[in-house]
Amino acid sequence: SDTLKYPFGVDVPAPVVDRMKCEYVADGETAVVIGNYFVDDPSSPLTVLFPGEVPGTIVSSTITEIQVTVPEGVGPGQIQVKTLYGKTRSRFYFRDDRNIILNFDDLTAAGGWRSGVVVNSNPDPIDGNFVRFSGALAGGAGVSWNEDGFSFNLWPQANGRPDVPVYTGDLKDGEIKFEINVTEPWQSCALQMIFTAYSVTGTNSYIADGSHPRGLWNPWKETGTYETDGWITVSFPLSDFNYSGDGSECANSLTADMISGLTFFVWNGGVSGTDCNPVICIDNIRVVPK
Asked: In this predicted model, what pLDDT tens digit does every residue of 48-77 receive, in sequence order?
């Protein structure tokens, strides 16, 4: 048989920086960067640059994940990953401080009927105070209603905040993000994330109002249970704020003027689960571009 020899090269892409397991990691601790094409070549070692172009110390790496020690003294901002084949800047921000709605330190839900159970221990905090949801949840969809144990209401007017937009970008390009640490199994009810207009105060009627759009997050749905290994960052697109409390599609859409107040409530969601006593800790709630 005949053989035709033809030279060709293999083009390796620049690194893809998708996300961090947790965007809030203390100096000296190990951060996890997730993406692709993380090539570590002896002639050009894999490098992670934190804000200010400060390199971190690589602990370990695979083609899709880097474990890196956060250097001392770095602040918020984008990170960069550099390989032999290029350098890529993240879209996300390390220790993202943009459009923080609640950090439970200087930005709290005080003034609402429920400001949440705010603590700074058990588990160890990620960034000062955080809110802890805990108590009993029934397994049947729509059975549990435990606002004291599993909710907060931020009404900005009652909280003394100005009537200004929280997020001014296109809603299809935005997402709500927060850090979460689930230390006891979560096995029923969805985390309902409900934005409310500045004028909404002194009522919780919008929670059960099926015409009020919201995001529903129930990460236990596929496996029947959910816990985290420490603090992680959750991203939830604003384009998915199109549900009613029972999990059905809402007739109304989220609008920019609604992104002012915010209620989190672990309730209903339309999926039956298992009786449980979860512990769900949340911090640094923000609305940012994807």
From this structure: 999 999 999 999 999 999 999 999 999 999
Helix segments in the chain, DSSP class H: 147-150, 156-159, 205-208
Find tokens 């969805």 and name the residue: 190
pLDDT at 290 over 70: yes
| DSSP 8-state assignment for residue 188 | S
Max CA distance (Å), the chain: 84
Beta strands in 135-206 (DSSP E): 151-154, 174-184, 191-196
Question: pTM for this one?
Answer: 0.94
CA 179 to mean position of chain CA atoms: 5
3-class SS at 50?
strand
Q: Yes or no: say if 90 and 78 are a contact pair by the CB < 8 Å rule.
A: yes
Q: For residues 150 and 289, what is the distance between their CA atoms, to the nearest angstrom?
A: 27
Q: Is 197 exposed, middle or buried (0-12, 13-18, 19+ CB in 10 A)?
A: middle
d(CA 270, CA 289): 29
